[in-house]
Known about the structure:
Layout lengths: L1 H28 L4 H12 L11 E2 H5 L2 H6 L8 H13 L2 E9 L4 E8 L5 E7 L3 E9 L5 E5 L12 E5 L5 H11 L13 H18 L5 H10 L6 H31 L3 H10 E5 L4 H8 L14 H25 L4 H12 L5 E9 L5 E8 H11 L1
Parallel strand pairs: 6-7
Antiparallel strand pairs: 1-2, 2-3, 3-4, 4-5, 5-6, 8-10, 9-10
Helix pairs in contact: 1-2, 11-12
Amino acid sequence: MWLFLQIVAGVFVAFMLTIFCAYLFIRWKLRGLAKSLMEAISAGLHGGVPPFRVKLMKRSDMDGDPDAADEVDWISDDERPAFEQLTQELQAVGFRMVEDYYIPELATAMRVLRDDDQVTRGIVYFHPIIGVWCEVGRKYEDDTGWSYSRVRAPGMDTPPFTVQKYFPDLTVEELVSKFREEAPREGAVVIHEENFPAIFEKAYAKEMDWHAERGGLSVKEIRRIAEINEDDCTEEGIRQVQLQWRTAITQFYSERALKRYRKQAELNSFQWEHLQGYGVVIHERMGAEELLQIYDEEYYPDVLGDPTDDEEAKEIRAQRSEWNQRISDLEDALTRGKPQQVFRDMVQLGNGSTGQIWEFQTSVAEPVEADIWTRTYRDEEEAWDDEDS
């Protein structure tokens, strides 16, 4: 289960780096299309971070849902023989079918099998980009895990609560034999069909939470993933990948914090809809660039745009210099106070200067310490006033 996230996330990062480098090349060749291409790249990178939560669907339930059957091609025709072959090879060494599942958030099909020992699972996966692969593993009563996979190492760091090993050159029989010899049996949890989805989803969430708590991928991880996938890895590419992760983490924390506030404050449906539209969460793990990105909605609107003349080049340099100075000031402020306090100071010093109206709502302690604000706009209020008059 944990291996699955590592593999998918590693591919997503490699894809982001490849797209980013392709953009740089195209921009060099076709400078006049820089701005429109940047918009396309931004849209492509939007999904570059794996979802922080997933929900397994039984294949049998999909077959019973006409809409799902129309929308989801469970396994492509080209990959189906390889998928069935891995299934048969696991069955040949003692595994028995448990259930077929689909993960909508990741467009991934998976077939779960169980060894005769009742505690070792075998999973065959299909992902449209990665293809087909399999893993064997065990989960233990202390909430740790042990997994071996027939795929190359994706390059991400491994959480301390799991052992993950990769053997792309072993046969299924060799992989299973090695796992049976080396993986501990004591404390292993028996796999029950009805419990598997909850166990998988919990393990996935635990690892994503571990990555979120670390602030996403480190520079070392990104460089390692790029090297494994033979991709170029520029400083700007690293910054973009890290910002993408931090933005996704902030969105994840924000959604959870807003839901907690809704429950605590017992908001009605109208209040909740307003909060969803205008609520902004400032949490304790945010960095300078994230704070500026939230406060100044035009921050880096065209970070890679090429100037068309000397005057525009001068304006871009001045704008970037201003942003870099603001980030430097925020980083200095963050050495003396939490992001929540730094943001309060930003609002106090500049509230209303850009047409934004900030109103503090409350603070929450979980899932992280955070302040909840609402942001409205003066032009919206003026429009309402005009309608009322």
